[in-house]
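Hi support team,

I submitted a single chain yesterday and got back a structure, but I'm not sure I'm reading the token output correctly. Could someone confirm the output below corresponds to the sequence I sent? I've pasted both exactly as they appear in my results page.

Thanks,
R.
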Amino acid sequence: MSSDRVVLVTGGNRGIGRAIAERFVAAGYRTAVTARSGEGPQGTMTVRADVIDSASLDAAFSQVEAALGPVEIVVANAGITKDTLLLRMTEDDFDSVVATNLGGTFRVVKRASKGMLRARWGRVILISSVVGLYGSAGQINYSSSKAALVGFARSLTRELGGRGITANVVAPGFIETDMTAALPENTQAEYKRNIPAGRFATPDEVAGVVTWLASDDAAYISGAVIPVDGGLGMGH
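Hi R., thanks for writing in. Yes, this is the structure output for that exact sequence:
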């Protein structure tokens, strides 16, 4: 699977976003990443942007368009967590997570959709989480923002589905990243007991699903939620 289409991955400087960008580069896509700091992987164009700031996003898109061409595939991956139990969660804990994870997706996809509509072709891929539908104590803000992406993708599919544009959600489970590596050993073991696959995923296993959704093979898939969670969520 190779293509020279233009891809933009938000938060592509580390973790899952970085793995997604690497996979697109390997398949020959012209790949750009947004980052608040740090750089994307080799072969990508890195642009500075914060998804809560429309002006910075607009400038980032303009840079990518000038250098690579109109963005045809957008992967909304940038996200934050501020985990704490409901009664301890401040309004800012809630609002900032929703503003980044959901509001950021809105700003990114709105800007990207203009070029897609002109081209009558596009792929919108939203990175959610197993906890969006499964739930997670201490993550009311995060899981709410990730669940909302399902309604977002399905509404977008109804709006733009007739214009050659698809919108899908990828819902990773536990992935081997710096975040999971920092968990205590016994906590990691407890999580693995609940995962039928008995292990965490590699970031590349998520990236493979994302690049497949961007391909022509997935042209008739839209409004779907694809779990990459080793069977943890099953039906949630």
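A quick pointer for reading it: Residues 6-228 form a domain with the Rossmann fold fold (CATH 3.40.50.720). Let us know if anything else looks off.

Best,
Support desk
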